[in-house]
Amino acid sequence: MKRNWIKGVACFLVVALTALFGVGCGGGGEGGKVTILVGEIIDLTGPGSPAVKTFHYATQDLARYYNDQGLIPGAEIKLATWDMQFNTARDLPGYDWCKQQGAKVIFGIHESTPITLKPFAERDKIPVFTGSFTEAAAEPPGWVFIDGADVAKQEATILKWVSNNDWDYAAKARVPKVGFLAGVRAWA
Predict the structure, then answer these.
(1) Higher pLDDT, residue 74 or 153
(2) Any residues with CB less than 8 A from the CB of 123 and at least 6 apart, and which?
(3) From the centroid of its chain, how far is CA 149?
(4) How far is CA 21 from CA 37, 40, 45, 66, 126, in A?
(5) Which CATH class is domain 2-146?
(6) pTM, entire model
(7) Domain with CATH 3.40.50.2300 in the chain
(8) Do residues 73 and 23 touch, judged by C-beta distance below 8 A?
(9) How far apart, in whole angstroms, are the C-alpha atoms of residue 164 and residue 5?
């Protein structure tokens, strides 16, 4: 659990710093501070919301913590949250809404979000961050940044480890199986 918190803090810092560099010419907020608006396209009311709300609450806590501690001098972080209701058709309207609110960076948690938003992020030069890896979002590289790993590429490493360290072929006389579960595919 602590490891996930550290990864979340690191991701949030990257998002905030990226946004800060992108608002160099922006107007000052309260007290001469620059406001960094982070757009968030997330499922708050759809079927995935019980699992996804924890990310939303963590993002709110991180923004509050960064602001209270003054971790980015001269800047205040605010969130603009769009409820995509676990409906991929709401990704693009969410992007437009976040952009209209003034978001300098957008975070989306679902696999559809970076794929849908990639050409628009390229056009508008707005970085889109996600934790859900998909080949379509990663290639070709551009304005989509992914903090997740490709499960298919992990497969060879895990199977090699199992075969080298945890399998007695002579005694068991069969091939080991490793199960993987990812957002869009499951196989064993």
Answers:
(1) 74
(2) none
(3) 12
(4) 12, 19, 33, 16, 12
(5) alpha beta
(6) 0.67
(7) 2-146
(8) no
(9) 32
